[in-house]
Hints:
Elements: H1 11-31
Amino acid sequence: MASNPREYRGQALREIREIAARDKDFIKCILKPKAKILGDTIPVSGNGNVTND
């Protein structure tokens, strides 16, 4: 069965958003801003009880 390629409503807006997102990520890769993560580092080893509230 052949597919039915068609234009979807809002596709142009989604494509513009993706282009802007790629540009933003490219600039972030060049500038390498510091992470905005707060708190102590939690090791990934162990059983995970450290993250329980």
